Amino acid sequence: MSPKEKHSEELLLKEEVVKQNEIVLFNDDVNTFDHVIDTLIYACEHTPEQAEQCSIIVHYKGKCTVKTGPYEELEPRCSKLLEAGLSAEIV
Q: Which residues contact 66 (CB under 8 A, 6 or more apart)?
């Protein structure tokens, strides 16, 4: 096995170990599109376009993954969503 092949194999193994969590936002009958969009921009640092697309997906599909990453980074973002009255969880 060449050194390059061995290095590639090690990188693949390291990539598999990294666990990505997701914040899933759920639809509700209470919050307006504008509130959801503004909150996603604030809490998840979405662009206005990203936030609008996520709000539409949530409305029609019932839920949408709005952010992925390590749990430690997602927890404060999910808390902001919950504090704003949205329904979300980390999976």
A: 23, 24, 25, 40, 44, 46, 54, 81, 88
Helix, coil or strand: residue 26: strand
Q: Which residue has the tokens 């914040």?
A: 23
The model's pLDDT over 6-24, given as tens digits with 9 standing for 90+, comes to: 666 666 666 556 679 999 9
**Residue 14: strand, helix, or coil:** helix
58-77 pLDDT, tens digit each: 999 999 999 999 999 999 99
Q: What's the chain's length in residues?
A: 91
Give the pTM.
0.80
